[in-house]
Specification:
Elements lengths: L1 H6 L1 H7 L5 H12 L16 E2 L2 H9 L17 E2 L8 H10 L6 H17 L4 H15 L7 E3 L5 E3 L6
Parallel strand pairs: 1-2
Antiparallel strand pairs: 3-4
Helix pairs in contact: 4-5, 5-6
Length: 164
């Protein structure tokens, strides 16, 4: 399918409903009781997931540098995985923008370093990263927001401010 889409994209798009491929794949997998591999071409989670620093930067600037297919043609989304030690500051900058926050490039580089340090110790999920970013944003902008306490066990709790 991928070869056909690359060779004659308009013909394939006019002949096939590409957005139904994942549904069809899931239907067949359910009927025959098999799991779909995460690294399956086109429809696997890894097909349009990117995480390395310079790689993620290139994807953000021009997705065709690393993707021969457009995930939207298949009803899928592109993911930039930024909660790991390979995270580059451009990926964090993209997430800051998605959260509608304003930080300078130097501030984003500083928070990226913190995320990488924690990512070296334990896995981070998107809520962890968002909490770190939001807390940093609140701190640099002198906003009243309880500081998240991120434990090595993977829990995030908010320190309560005492009101006497």
């Amino acid at each position: 399918m991928a070869r056909m889409v690359v060779a004659t994209p308009e013909y394939v798009k006019s002949k096939y409903n590409l957005k139904k491929i994942r549904d069809l794949e899931n239907l067949v997998a359910d009927i025959v009781s098999v799991n779909i591999p995460f690294n399956n071409p086109i429809t696997g989670f890894c097909a349009f997931t990117h995480k390395a620093g310079i790689h993620a930067k290139a994807i953000l600037a021009n997705p065709s540098t690393y993707e021969i297919l457009n995930p939207e043609d298949f009803g899928l989304s592109r993911y930039i995985h930024f909660a790991n030690r390979l995270t580059g500051w451009n990926a964090i900058k993209s997430r800051v923008e998605q959260l509608n926050l304003t930080l300078t490039d130097n501030q984003i580089k500083e928070i990226t370093t913190k995320i990488k340090q924690i990512g070296d110790i334990r896995p981070l999920n998107i809520d962890d990263v968002d909490s770190i970013i939001k807390n940093f944003h609140a701190t640099v902008n002198n906003l009243e927001l309880p500081e998240p306490e991120i434990t090595l066990e993977g829990e995030i709790s908010r320190k309560r401010q005492r009101t006497d």
